[in-house]
């Protein structure tokens, strides 16, 4: 492939040009020299991402420890003087709790924003400056059609990028919309290896929106690096002051959350640490400027490790316009639940004729108050500052008053359950209640009562005798030691299906082959004895149409789940749900009742505990595509699989990196023939000679 590079990397030299172009497109936070903002006329959008470790609450140049105070920052030795604004911009704060290690990209936490146009070639250079850790970067939401080796999943589509190494990802920007990039090896997203990736449609400024606010949500635990978080999930999380076990929290339906304690919520890498429901440490909050009567497009990106978060604006409603890069029918709500891996766009107009100087945007977890023991405040916050209202901004405001949904009617979109307790006037809308409104939708290819191929995949933690790993169809995913896509003939960890059936569960590299150019129906289930957690399921390489969401049975007074959905029967005998079928056989092969006749599109969908989701797509993108729970800890624990699409894959580029399993095979024995030993020696002599020639030519 020949590329003509028209570089638009936002460097010190190109800043004035780019900012001049962006002057009429207000995007907050404003772009910095770390971000990449390309022009529509660029053929190639070039990006460089330097991945390194940094410390929070440190001024590097001054070598000073920083403290939070009243929404500002001071040095630890001079708490009576605030830092200058220039100094504040150089401090990575997170939640202001001590100085801890994070992953920064181009010096930023989280990573810089990338803005490109649909159809552009993205030439992204990843430079691993970490000293001990390998990395890969996945372009979440980008289909990678024709370039499956650029999907960025370690040991599925590529080798990890080792410390000190550089990797180039070259691909087409599609589809247009709100996407992100993030780590895809282990749980590095929890430390900050992620960022916004916005793809604009062409020549449609009314679709782009002139006033945009980009918000990246993160649940934050300042005691857990990725490995600690994973091992705490396997054992317990503790209160180190009392020695007591910290109980796992749950949502209103009693769905559990895993052992990753929420200690703070971050928006674009900033937040406050709340010691209890009324006391915070005064760390700076992100601020966005709002003008009365002006409409803003919010792009909300769920980069969380574990917790779904309910987004609201203090005392306001807003209108949902899209999810996962695709437009949906406009729906006005009071709040929105966003799960890890999801993205939502909504529009909101700055209030007119108001004397209120600021509003709070809040993203609060859906943990119930009683599971938090009523003394915690688990939320990410941002200040929406009304610039045309006089008066000072309160940089450390009190927490926003929650809407009183016992008095007013509240509508919550994207609930992973049916409803809230009866005494609440809160109406739940699931994604099943929405319709498609995307200009490039092709629902005529999807709807109907017949599909070419149908597959059932159960996501859960089944097992016995304490062995309950994350799995799909009772198969705990084991990553191979070489990429499945590019070195398929070296894979030794594929599933022995006979053994899996005999032993009920197994650990292997679970794959499902699907044919090319067919209408595929997948049924994502969350039933059987491994249920109890809701899972946001993400499919790489495709978006899918959400045809139906089947929920369980709930107590109308309390809202908790009392029975799993009965539409699907587990047929494996132990309720591990390694095999399933429709209870009503007339539903087979796509003839499911109650499906949406104008289904919306997504690439990440929550599968409620005790329920299922039916999705469809056309298998027009051959490759090896990861299908997994987007809760990092569940994925690392084995809740993933590979969709092996098409018998013929695109040809891997010449020179694409390979890796090996360096299992020691031993040196030649004494019985090795003289000819063999001479060959080994000759190869070394030739190699040394070539090196000597190279050095001679250089010097």
TrEMBL record:
Which InterPro entries does this one have?
A: Cu-oxidase-like_N (IPR011707), Cu-oxidase_2nd (IPR001117), Cu-oxidase_C (IPR011706), Cu-oxidase_fam (IPR045087), Cu_oxidase_CS (IPR033138), Cu_oxidase_Cu_BS (IPR002355), Cupredoxin (IPR008972)
- Gene Ontology cellular component terms for the protein in this record: plasma membrane
All residue ranges annotated as the Plastocyanin-like domain in the record: 92-203, 213-368, 507-646
Residue spans crossing the bilayer: none
GO molecular function of the protein, one example? copper ion binding
* This protein's UniProt keywords: Copper, Metal-binding, Oxidoreductase, Signal
Q: Which GO terms describe its biological process?
A: iron ion transport
Identify the Gene3D superfamilies for this entry: Cupredoxins - blue copper proteins
Q: Where is the signal peptide?
A: 1-20
Family membership noted in the UniProt record = Belongs to the multicopper oxidase family.
Identify this protein by name.
L-ascorbate oxidase
| Organism of origin | Dreissena polymorpha (Zebra mussel)
